[in-house]
Each structure stands twice: as C-alpha cells, then as structure tokens.
Amino acid sequence: MASGVEARRVRIRLRGIVQGVGYRPFVYHLARELQLGGWVLNASSGLWVEVEGPGAAVDGFLERVRTEAPPLARIEEMTVVDAPLAGGASFVIRESVAEEGEFVLVSPDVATCADCLRELRGPADRRYLYPFTNCTNCGPRYTIIQDIPYDRPKTTMARFRMCPACQAEYQDPNDRRFHAQPNACPACGPRLSSGLEEARRLLRDGRILAVKGLGGFHLACNPADAAAVERLRARKRRGDKPFALMARDLEAVERICHVSEEDRRSLTSERRPIVVMPRREDSGLSPALAPNDRTLGVMLPYTPLHHLLLDDPALPVLVMTSGNIAEEPIVTSNQEARERLAGVADGFLDHDRDIYMRVDDSVVRTFEGRERLLRRSRGYAPEPIDLGMEVAGILACGAELKNTFCLSKGRYAVLSQHIGDLENYETLVFFEETLANLKKLFRVEPRAVAYDPHPMYLSTRFALDIPDLQKIAVQHHHAHVASCMAENGLRGKVIGVAFDGTGYGTDGQIWGGEFLVVDYSGFERRAHLRYVPLAGGDAAVRLTWRAALGYLTDTFGAASPPASLPLWEQVPEKKTNALRALLARGAGTVRTSSCGRLFDAVASIIGLRQEANFEAQAAIELETISEDGWDGSYPFEIENSEPWQIDLRPTISAIVADLGRECSLARIAAAFHSTVAAIIVEVCRRLRALEGLNQVCLSGGTFQNMRLLERAARGLRKQGFELFLHARVPANDGGIALGQVVVANAVLRNR
Ligand code: ZN
Ligand code: ZN
Ligand code: FE
Question: Is 153 exposed, middle or buried (0-12, 13-18, 19+ CB in 10 A)?
C-alpha cells in the first residue's frame, strides 16, 4: 500500500439498496469531511464513486462508506479499483446515468420517519399537517417508480414542479431532503381532494371511507361499530374473512391485543406490516371484525395522511382493509376507485399523487422470536432475496392462490409483491403489469419459465403460452420445500414436510400431506397421508362436509357410517345421500392426501363448520377452539407401502367415539392437533433412520397453524432434528415462486 500522504484515486461501485435512501448525500458529506475530491453518481448498475486525496484519507473513506451507511441502505457488493489521478479538490454529485442491461435494487416503500413526523406536528413548520411530507429516509418508493435510475422524472412525482423552497432543499447537500425524489410541500406538492375533518366525521358517523394509501386504496370504518363493520363486510362481499386494523400508536394496539416484544419491533419497523397478534378479551371492538378467531391483524400508520386521519381522539383504531370487492386486486387510481368502490364507500379521501405500482399491505406474525411473513408485499417487495449462489435468468410463475411470481438474475431472486388469487381476469392483468414492470426495473430477460404443473392454474397457462422460453414444471410441494431451503441457504438433501390444502401431484391426484426427500434438482415422495376419495373436486374445498364424507367412507365403509354425528343434522340428508352414492360408485371423485382437507373433515365431523367462505377457515376455527394445555392425542398407523401411507382411520374412529362420549370439542380439537404433530415427528424419525438426514424443512400453508407448528417444532427438536422454517417468504403458496426458481435453476444446470 502507498504511504498515507501520497495521493491516490479510487473508483468504487456499490451495489444493493443504495438509491433513494440518502446514499449520495452521505457519500458527499463523507468525502467533504475527509477533504477528498471526486464525484458520486447513480447509475442503473448501482452507485459509482470516485475519490481522490491522501492515501490515508482514501482508506478512511473506503472503511466508513460501508460501516456508516444510511439506515435504509443495504450494501450487497462493493468493488474498488485504482484510477488515474485527475486532480481537483472539489467533490460533486453528477447526473444519474442509465446503463443497458444492468439492474439496481429498488427500495420498497418506507413508513414516515420521526423527523418528518416532527415537522408534520410542528405548527411553525412549513409542512405542518401536510399529508405528503417525506424525506430521503422515508416515503413512497416502489409504488411511484416508473423506471430506473431512481430520479424524480421517472416517478409519478414528475408532474409536480418543486417550489423554490423545496428545490433549495433538494439541491442542498446539508439538507435531509437532498435528492429526496418525492420531496413536496403544501405550495408545490400533491393535495387531498377533500377535507380531513369531513373524512373523520364520516368515520365517526359509522360510514365507510375509501382512503388512498401508498400502494392502493383502503376501506376504513369504525371497528367498534358493529353495524358499520357488518355493512362493510356485506358491501365488499367479504364472507367472514378477518379485517385488518390500523391503530394510532403502540398504546392503542396494546389496548386491543397482547403485544410481544417481537410484535412491537415488527409493528414499529419502517416496513410497517400488519402484525397478527392475540386479541384481548376486553378490546371493546366488534367481534364481527374476525368472527371465531382469537387473533387480530393490526398495523401502525405509515403515511402522514394515516397519522392525520387517526388524530381523532374518538377513533384511535380504524378498520383498514384493502379497497376492492371480493378477491379482485386492490384499487389504485382515483377514477377506478370512484367506479369500482362506488357501492362500497360512503366517501372518498384521495389525492393527486398517482400510484404506479399496486402493492397491498404485508402481513406478518412472530414465532420463536422472528418475524414470519404471511403475505410479502408493501415494505418488503421488491427487495431481492440473496440466494448466495449464481442462478440463471428465470421467471417463476408461482401457483394460483396468494400468487406471487419471481424473477432471478445473478445471485438474486426478486419476488413480486402479493398478486392475489389468480382466479379472475383483473388479477391476471395485475400479474402481467407487475411482471412487465419488474422486468424493466431489474433489467431481467429470463431464458426459462418455471410453473406449477396444475393444468387448471391460470399461472400455468400463462407460462406455457410464453413463446421461446424453456418450460420447466416444478411440482407444487417440491417447490414449497425448495423455497424453505432457499431462504435458509440449504444446499444438500433434506427431509421436507409439505402440508397444505392443494397441490397437483405427479400421479394426477391432489396432494397436500407430503413427506419428501428433497434437493433442488429433484424429490422422492416417501410418505403421505393415505388417500381418501374426494367427491366434487374443487367444489369440495368450500364444502368441508365433502371431505368429511371422504374420511368417513374410508374409515367405516360407504355402507355403514356412524349413526349419530352433528354432521348429519347440519347438512341436508338429500345432499349427503347423493354424495355417498357418488363415493360408493367412485364416480366424479379424485383422491387426495391433502392435510387441509383432513382439517376440514375433522371440523365437519365434530359439527364445527360445514361450509367455509374463505381458505382455511375451518382449520383456523379448529385451532381457535383447541383447549390450551390439553395434551391427549389419537392413534394413527403408518402403512409400509411404497411410499408409506399414513393411515388416519384410527384417528377418525377415535374422534367419532369421543363425540359419542360427549367429550368437549375443545379437547377433540386439541388432541387432533397433537396427533398431526406426532405424525410429523414419527415419519421424520423413520426417514432419518433410513436416509441419515437430520435437516427438516416445514413448508405449506398448514404451518400457518401456530398450534400445529409449535407442537411439531417442539417434537422434532426433542428428537434432535435440525429444523428450518419460513420467515422471509411465506410458508403458504405466496412462497412457491422462490422454490420454483431454485429448482428450475438446478434443472437447467443438469440439462
Ligand atoms: Zn422522513
Ligand atoms: Zn414545495
Ligand atoms: Fe401449497
């Protein structure tokens, strides 16, 4: 190394989340402090810096540029090369440049920071009560960025011309709004269409308000007003699915939920997800918010507008559910809102800053001290997942429900925001728009497309219709386990337990209670829940009693079902007889090993629920009613077939016997959960004995059941297994696309 006083010039490239997070001003200040000359600029490929000065100062710069980075920045890679001396002691920020074929990491949207909140609340500040206040450390990002490099003309802020005061902030390296692209103030920035006072009054009066947020509209109402909640439910055609809430502050959250230390961390993080927590008995909120559910999903305000809306002392908490009807995508434009939400909202609170990318709220839950994503969207997308290995350019189309897709490039997998259930045209359009946008932002041109082989999925058909790309089918449960492996950085073979509602099997049957031995390039199906007949195929997903008849037929034979069950009283005999006739003939039935259907069957047999109006409703209720502390469990058998079949006939018989003994449903439900957990532990033990594998991945939507997850995890650890769970991507089908990428990459490599 040259001596400390000798002049030296270096060129540095920083990759990662380095744009829109205050990196250039930080670099500028650091260079000035160290009296170095040179420049910094944003390019498509990242941030470029050149500094020149005494060797010791340059070394100090290289150290501090990494260690003292702004809070929102994430450096993935830093390369340094020596450059010829150019002289000159000044340091400047240069114009951004776009480079062909390169990609940078686009920042997710960031909740309003403490500095901006102080200004929002400061009567003397020129942004006092201004609902679009933001700075270099906070504000909209992904939702307003139309192209890179990230500069104002390439955002939906382009149409607002900064006033002299804002322009001065923007150009002043000493200002905390230096190069803050969405910078705005009441004189020059976006405006609300109507008054906040009027909006608050509507809410107090029990009306429904459509509010424009960061990634789309919300529908808001007073959660303590049962009539308002019911009205919203009916107008939105929502069924019993829980509504999310937004609370003014932590104190307001603590009045309605039991909040753990980890929950608090997630609630207040700059990502501001909806956090699912146990509901307090004395919350004072309408039970209609989340019928038959002991949890509530709550978030804190993440835009200045939310903070202002929640200023009303009469309403410290609001229902904040996505602005859509049924399962359509969330509404983003003002005009779309007035058209599609006309029959739902009694009033609108919108503004003239356009949303470019539709993004729903994220949903998390904490478990074992870590945040676990249930829905990965605002605040997280499109932050890439570092795979720790080079992968080919692949588009993975995901599954159908809770769809997300994934693009890979270099070491990164970019998982899209939550797209939704790909069951209607609007959602498919959303999928296509988001795909086009992410391909553009990240400069990805995939050479292969991975898809779920389910022949009826829209995502499958979409994948197969893409010309020129290599097509790679990835079995649903293989993708689940691979997704869990990828986020945990596993490479070799593992035991994968994939429990969920539905996944298309290689034998054409519906899988979902699977024990697989998995690596990225393939899997072996080693055990599964014994097949039961399921009449009516997909219709049975909503009609839980159809799954029950499948299990009862399997257990007792079609001719002699148990005589007295609540099921027989709750479902008309005509219907059950017709289905029994079908089952006896075996016509119109598929076979399933789905764990979701097993939960449905048990919920139906014990008379808890005969029809579900949203996914996993019966399973959630079964979990909810389970008696805490009850540790009974039921017998089961493992048939030594190839693959092993887990025989639940003894379980079903025992449940029916317990019902006859008038055992409490709470105990039956608890014992049933323990049984499923025991099955997982036992099958893993046997597989370990044969395969010598000690790493277990749990994946699939069933593992959103906390009672099951806790018991399975405890049991597996007690047996000395090394256990891997999901955290950064959902265990449900929202995580499938990541698994598809790593599997497709391995398949491509082997071809
Ligand atoms: Zn800020
Ligand atoms: Zn201004
Ligand atoms: Fe699944």
Answer: exposed
Distance 440 CA to ligand 1 centre (A): 28
CATH number of the CATH domain containing 410: 3.30.420.360
Tell me, yes or no, whether 680 and 646 share the same domain: yes
Ligand nearest to the CA of 110: 1
Note whether 349 and 241 are same-domain residues. yes
Distance (Å) from CA 71 to ligand 1 centroid = 12
State the total domains in the chain.
4
CA of 161 to the centre of ligand 3 (A): 48
What is the Å distance from ligand 1's center to 116 Cα?
Answer: 4
Q: Do residues 139 and 184 lie in contact, with contact meaning Cβ atoms separated by under 8 Å?
A: no
- Extract the tokens encoding 748: 């491509």
Domain boundary residue among 61, 93, 125? 93
Distance from the CA of 127 to the center of ligand 1, in angstroms?
12
Interatomic CA distance for residues 510 and 507, integer angstroms: 9
- Give me ligand 2 centre to Cα 170, in Å: 10
Q: Note the ligand closest to the C-alpha atom of 483.
A: 3
Q: Are residues 85 and 168 in the same domain?
A: no
φ, ψ (nearest 5 deg) of residue 180: -80, 105
3-class secondary-structure state, position 2 = coil
pTM of the model: 0.92
| Nearest listed ligand to the Cα of residue 735 | 3
Beta partners for 523?
Answer: 518
Ligand with an atom nearest the CA of residue 183: 2
Which of the ligands is closest to the CA of residue 127? Answer: 2
CATH assignment of the domain containing 663: 3.30.420.40
More confident residue, 439 or 588: 439
Nearest ligand to the C-alpha atom of residue 190: 2
User: What is the C-alpha separation between 628 and 706, in angstroms, rounded?
Assistant: 12
**pLDDT tens string 100-151:** 666 667 889 999 999 999 999 999 999 999 999 999 889 999 999 999 878 8
Per-residue pLDDT tens for 287-297?
999 999 999 99
Ligand of minimum distance to the alpha carbon of 22: 1
**Domain-located, residue 743:** yes
Question: Which domain CATH number covers 282?
Answer: 3.90.870.50
- Domain of residue 383 covers 371-486+731-750
Considering the domain architecture, whether residues 712 and 740 belong to the same structural domain is answered as no
Length of the chain equals 751
